[in-house]
């Protein structure tokens, strides 16, 4: 079977891949910058876990 002359998948696929990776890196950078701006590091999850455990155990 002969390929259609309208098929130009390689240049568009390359552009889409570069565009998608670029957007992903940008969103990752923004997310990490926002996380660091709040200065929460690793304590936020521990505080929430402690609060939930205390409420479920009836500890005041």
Short description:
This protein has helices at 9-37, 43-57.
Written overview of the protein:
The chain is mainly alpha-helical and 60 residues long. The protein has one domain. Helix content is 73%, strand content 0%. The chain has two helices and no strands. The longest helix is centred in the middle third of the chain and has 29 residues. The relative contact order is 0.06. The model has no long low-confidence stretch (mean pLDDT 79).
The counted number of beta strands is 0
Low-pLDDT residue intervals, each spanning 5 or more residues: none
| Structural class estimated from helices and strands | mainly alpha
User: Element order, helices and strands?
Assistant: HH
Average pLDDT over all residues: 79
Q: State the end-to-end CA separation.
A: 75 Å
Biggest β-sheet strands, sense, barrel:
none
Q: Please tally the helical runs, counting DSSP H or I stretches of 4 or more residues.
A: 2
Estimated share of beta-strand residues = under 5%
How would you describe the shape? Answer: elongated
Helix content: over 70%
For the record, the count of structural domains works out to: 1
Tell me the Rg in angstroms. Answer: 24 Å
What labels describe this entry?
single chain, mainly alpha
């Amino acid at each position: 079977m002969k390929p259609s002359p309208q098929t130009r998948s390689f240049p568009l696929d390359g552009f889409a891949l570069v565009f998608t990776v670029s957007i992903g890196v940008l969103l990752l950078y923004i997310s990490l910058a926002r996380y660091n701006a709040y200065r929460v590091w690793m304590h936020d999850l521990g505080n929430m876990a402690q609060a939930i455990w205390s409420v479920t155990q009836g500890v005041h």
